[in-house]
Amino acid sequence: MNQTGPIPTVSIYGIPFSKLTMKETVETLREAVLSKKPHQVITANPIMVMAALENPSMMQVMQSAELIVPDGTGVVWAANYCGDPVAERVPGFELLHELLRVGENYRWGVYLLGSTPEVIQETAVRLQQQYPAIRIVGYRDGYFGPAEDEQVVASIREAAPDLLFVARGADTQEPWIHKYKEALQVPVTMGVGGSFDVISGKSKRAPKLFQKLRLEWFYRLLREPSRAGRMLALPKFAIKVIQDKENVTKAR
Q1: Per-residue pLDDT tens digits for 89-117
Q2: 232 conformational bin, left if phi > 0, alpha if psi -120 to 50, beta if neither
Q3: What digits encode the pLDDT tens for the residues 152-179?
Q4: 238 and 74 in contact (C-beta within 8 Å)?
Q5: What is the pTM of this model?
Q6: Residue 61 backbone dihedrals phi, psi, to 5 degrees
Q7: Maximum distance among all Cα pairs of the chain, rounded to whole angstroms
Q8: Which domain of life is it from (predicted)?
Q9: DSSP assignments along 182-247, one per residue
Q10: Distinct helix (H) and strand (E) counts, the chain
């Protein structure tokens, strides 16, 4: 993917996580945009790893992505614990902003897809204000079903963005990108989860102290107790890694 050769990765249960730093990741994706070839970027955490272990089609989606960055603290810990560390955590929220910073130098076109009509509109307005040299070439909310997929893909392809950020449900976001990656023909497409909620001001990102202590997940749980069921994947992942220590990083 980058000009200097293949991306160094560590396999966590068969999922190839990038060992690149944030700076190297941004440079790699800059080259990806210039190449004009479609790349899917997944910002993955332990919840997604556990989902892939339970769902073969999700595993296939993750294994076929061009780049998987260690978004979750648990992934960074697991790689380190098993003796094959990544360089650092690469949070998807920060990666989005870094790409837009670089994109200003090239007047990159950006398309935003997902969330509610109010959130996506406010996100577009705020990102354009923050990064005046990028071009917001289109946006639409995430309220569409499979019957409208082709129409949505056609409108994105017509807008011809360099970057496509997709915020849909965790279980649909990555499979949707995977399914339509070739049809979209966007150089870099990345799932961004709840990033639009934060950018639009609908929700707050964890305070700096929580970020520093790597407890963003705990802050989210405090604010949204309904996430508790999903969060159970975190201790399950940690226990599984400790039990499987010798085999976690072996390719599957």
Answers
A1: 999 999 999 999 999 999 999 999 999 99
A2: alpha
A3: 999 999 999 999 999 998 789 999 999 9
A4: yes
A5: 0.91
A6: -60, -45
A7: 50
A8: Bacteria
A9: HHHT-SEEEE-TTHHHHHHTSSPPPPHHHHHTT-HHHHHHHH-GGGHHHHTHHHHHHHHHHHTTTT
A10: 13, 8
